[in-house]
User: Fold this.
Amino acid sequence: MVTVTDANGCKDTAEKTLIIYPYPDAGDNLVANCFSKDNVVMQAIGTGTWSLKTSGLTVIISDINDPNATMSDFSGPGMYEFIWTNGHCEDIVLVNVNDNC
Assistant:
């Protein structure tokens, strides 16, 4: 609530409700040694949804709503960027996937 008083002493009050959403935490960056065999378990905090930001690569996400989802069946080696979003804010975690099969 805000009350404003002008130079003549006249007052007016306004009220506004603000919704503050928590900033999502996607967790630490991860490494997979072998794109065709290794899985990684994400370490996000809070509620949200996972998606793959990196184009040209594919992966299987066990449950897009699970902060500890397992990422598996990487399409090849490379740097995979995953987004953890709560619908208002997002955080990115990188998974470096190697070809050490």
In short: The first strand starts at residue 2 and ends at 5. The mean pLDDT is 94. The CA atoms of residues 7 and 13 lie 15 Å apart.
